[in-house]
Automatic annotation (TrEMBL):
Keywords, sorted A to Z: Kinase, Transferase
Gene encoding the protein: GUT1_2
UniProt-listed Enzyme Commission number(s): 2.7.1.30
UniProt protein name: Glycerol kinase
Amino acid sequence: YALEGSIAVAGSAIQWLRDKIGLIFSAAEIGFLADTVEDNGGVYFVTAFSGLFAPYWRDDARGAIVGLTQYATRGHIARATLESVCYQTRAILDAMRKDSGTELRRLRVDGGLTNSNQAMQIQADILNIEVVRPEMRETTALGAALAAGLAVGIWKDEHELRQVAQSNVAAFWSRITDEKRDEMLKGWDKAVQRSLDWA
C-alpha cells in the first residue's frame, strides 16, 4: 500500500518563469537567482495555475504572487517559486502523517527540480527532516532499467538491487529555527487563502 499526493504545478512553474515571463533564461538559473537573496522577503508565489491539488483540492484556486514591495527583486520571486513546491510538499506530507499516524524522518527525492541544491535546502528547512537526493535523479527510468535487467538475468535477485543508486547521495538538513519555519508557514497559509475563489 502507498499514500500519494500530487502537486499540480511544480517544475512547470520554472518553465513559466522562463518561457512566459522571461525572468530566467534556463531552468538551472533559478537556483542561482534564488540564492541571491537571504529569504523570500515576504514574497509568496502560489503556483495554482490549474487549481491546487492535494491536500487542498481547490479547483477554484489560481496563481498568485503576494507580498510584493519595492524591496522585492527577481531573486525573491525565484525563491518564492522554489518555496511554493516545498510548501505544497509539506502540506501533502502533513496529510500523510495524519492519515498514517506515522512520523516521517526522511524524504527521498528525485526528478528535475531536485537538481537545485537551493530547492533541496529549502525543502529540508520547511520539512525539518532529512532530504536525501541520489546521484541518479530519474528514479522512474532507473526502476524500469532495473526491472528489465532483473528479467534478463543481469542481476540474479532483488537483493542485488538494494545497493544500486545508493552511492554519492546528498543529504540536506534544516538550517533555520522553528520560529522562522512557523513564520514562513503562516505566510504560505495566508497566500493560499488569497489564491482561492477565482474560478
